[in-house]
Amino acid sequence: MARTARIERTTKESSVLVELNLDGTGQIDIETGVPFFDHMLSQLGRHGGFDLKVVTKGDVDVDSHHTVEDTSLAVGEAIRAALGDKVGIRRFGDAYVPLDETACHAAVDLSGRPYLVHEQPEIVELIGTFDTTLIRHIWESIIATAQICIHIRILSGRNAHHVSEAQFKAVARALRDAVAIDPRVLDVPSTKGSL
To answer: Domain range spanning residue 175?
Structure first.
């Protein structure tokens, strides 16, 4: 059974298309009009081993907030849709990722319950034209529609680019493990019977 999703989201501020294959090979095609965000979503697809296509047309002439938010909501929705009934998944995953002076730990639970713990150093700067305060909002938006729990902790780091990128790589690796099929799990991995 293919674990894929195609999500289209249209608002007055943006038009988003997301195509996701959880069992892909890390093929990515990302075009949101926000270059640093494209770079981060590319990390999610490549290091997650997912085929990920994202095409967004947004009001970037205003700023990147709406484009980033609407795209992140659609990515989360695609994750949820591609997971389907979650039968046979590992459910949990975690990863520790170093990136030069930065180290990040991420843990994921495909629980059906949205929750975010996000700890990073206070970094107020632009990366190109990208507002780094949007990083937390990206995760908030993804977990809201994916209905998953993510804990992200930056253990060390000072460069905003590295602090941001390490998060996406760590979450990608944790998601890769969590969505993997475990041949020993024949149903939904929960004592409740559903996720």
So the answer is: 4-179
